[in-house]
Amino acid sequence: MRFRIFVTTVGICALALLPGATARGLSLEEALILAGQSRFEITAIPREIQSGEGKVLQASVTPAPELDLETRNAFEESKAEMRFVWERGGKRDARVASARAGLDALGAQAEVRQLDVGQQVRKAFSAVLAAEQSLALTEDALALARSLSDTVAEKVRAGAASPIEETRSAVRLHGAAAEVERARREVALARADLSLSVGDPGVRSAPLEGGLSEDTTVPDLTAAKEQMSATPDLKQLDREVLLRRSVFAEAKTQSKRDITWRAAANYNQLDDNAWVSVGVSIPLFASDRNRGALATAAAEVERGEMERTATERRLAAELDRTFAGLQASAREAAILRGDVLGGAERAFATVQEGYRLGKFPYLDVLDASQVLLEARLQYTAALSALAQARIDVDRLLGKTSLPSTSSIR
Question: Is 199 a domain residue?
């Protein structure tokens, strides 16, 4: 597995070094595939399935006959006895059904696990894109602060501006540099989270493809709620309830105890006498010996059904809450894009040009540049929150699984 990842990485690097080759970053799809190859929670799934299949195979095995050899008084008396266990009450069928239900439950758990890992990778990938976009904005603000600082310095030297404005521009420049360092720290933390979610340290320094989506459309909540009944989370709980019912059914078969048949060949050397004996062992009062196991299994079934109902209600409430956040982020992003960003950009351009012509004081330039930067950062934060909310909604609806290339089947 690690060798394949190494070969893939080397191949990408080699292509990037070819003459005329365009360097490309890591896409979300590639990050998801890499997570399916690197995360233990996913790579262990085939072994878990094999374990479940082994339990099904073992459950179908019937008790083996037993051979009992006995001799006494220096071989004067000898006996060879065969014992055959007769399983009553459908024990074998119940065992197999319980093992198959356990295997189905493992498959449902694996599906939910892939959804969780896919959600983690998607959210971490989106967080890196948002952090890098914010970093780019702060770097642009720093470059702008340098440009304004140079303009102020020229005006001060020409006697057209007060020296206090040069001090203000220097403070603004240092503040912009501090914002860049903070944004770089956020990028480093987001990349560390992405590396953990993918399970590969090499992702921490890899360039990423894509950007934050500016689509502010929101899916229909009613249609989403109709999909909730078939989500993998509820499917997993349904399989768990079926497993517990199978365990209960298997416990009921234990109330009928097995009968052991015996057939023996006996030989007495003293009188040279041989005979065959047949016997049977029948357990007495067997039905009273399994009441505790039956009570436990029945309680587990009821608990599983209660958990399924409670989880369905919880997921419905989470969907409502997540949708509310999704709608709020979409509205915020739409307002910022339609009403705020354009006005802030026009206001800053007007004030900046007016300052060069001596129509506005430097303080107005600072205010306009700060408003523009905050509007851009706020828009980026709204897009990031919108992306995170979309991913959470997709997770609740079972749409964040890993690509089929990393599937367990």
Answer: yes
pLDDT tens digits, one per residue of 120-153: 999 999 999 999 999 999 998 888 888 877 777 7
DSSP 142-192: HHHHHHHHHHHHHHHHTTSS-HHHHHHHHHHHHHHHHHHHHHHHHHHHHHH
Would you say residue 205 lies in a domain? yes
Written as six digits, the tokens of 284 are 């007495």
Q: How many domains does the chain have?
A: 1
**Segment holding 278, helix H or strand E:** strand 273-281
Query: What CATH code is carried by the domain that includes residue 111?
Result: 1.20.1600.10
Contact present, 104 and 239 (Cβ < 8 Å): yes
Q: Are 216 and 334 in contact (CB under 8 A)?
A: yes
Q: Which residues pair with 26 in a beta bridge?
A: 208
* Residue 263, in any domain of the structure: no
pTM over 0.85, yes/no: no
Per-residue pLDDT of 2-14, as tens digits, reads: 444 444 444 444 4
